[in-house]
Design goal:
alpha+beta, globular, about 30% strand, six-stranded antiparallel β-sheet, Glutamine Phosphoribosylpyrophosphate, subunit 1, domain 1
Length: about 240
């Protein structure tokens, strides 16, 4: 009961994922990202070890097809997993196990892939890809990822297949990794009754701070205190 958009920005080499689900704490279990390597998700009945192993194999020099096949083969219950990978050079690989709940599937777009399960219908994924593609390349990459999540929700989002009941998104996560940055953007909403809206709010607060935090990690000596930096961003 999850939908996600995996995307890349070829202009600057960024990779990213935005994901939302009825489950709690999605950021801790489903998405995995490595700058210059790839971005992955293990969802449905998620096993974080699958995505972790997948990216480790890629980082060690294995080709994507082998890494993907090996990570799935090492899992005891692949029929319950939905796994997607977008590599830094644009390769896409997806596995939707036979026990993932309908609607379950994926759609590949330009520099993106939408993937999900427990969905209202395929239109959820179609609208996610369209939203990502419709925004110009000049739009912030994070904005394009969040817009795709919002489009998926507006198109019906998650739905219990037997009762037809709509399921709210109770957790969400956004990750973006860029070459040369020592850590990614990693924003998580672990519990909310409207997790996608909460994720957008969290991004708005964090986004102007990311470069400050990167600079502080590299050399904090001549930086202003965080409190003073925030006051400069938001003068009263």
């Amino acid at each position: 009961m999850t939908f996600a958009i995996l995307g890349s920005d070829p202009a600057d080499g960024k990779l990213g994922i935005a994901i939302a689900t009825y489950s709690l704490g999605v950021g801790a279990t489903c998405p995995q990202i490595q700058a210059g390597t790839g971005v992955a998700t293990s969802q449905a009945s998620t096993n974080p070890a699958v995505g972790e192993q997948l990216l480790e194999l890629l980082k060690s020099g294995r080709n994507p097809a082998y890494a993907f096949e090996q990570a799935i083969a090492n899992d005891s219950y692949p029929e319950f997993r939905q796994i997607a990978l977008l590599t830094a050079d644009g390769q896409v690989l997806v596995h939707s196990g036979t026990h993932t709940k309908p609607f379950s599937g994926h759609i590949t777009g330009e520099n993106c892939i939408a993937v999900g399960n427990f969905l209202a219908d395929v239109g959820v994924l179609e609208q996610m890809v369209q939203a990502f593609e419709d925004l110009p390349d000049s739009a912030p990459f994070t904005t394009r990822l969040i817009a795709a999540l919002e489009a998926g929700k507006s198109a019906g989002g998650q739905r219990e297949p037997e009762s037809g009941e709509s399921l709210t998104e109770r957790s969400a996560c956004l990750m973006v990794a860029a070459p040369g940055e020592s850590f990614p953007i990693d924003i998580r909403v672990d519990f909310s009754e409207d997790a996608i809206s909460a994720l957008r709010q969290a991004l708005a607060a964090y986004d102007p701070m990311h470069q400050y935090y990167l600079a502080r990690a590299e050399n904090p000596e001549n930086l202003p205190l965080q409190y003073d930096f925030v006051k400069r961003l938001n003068p009263t």
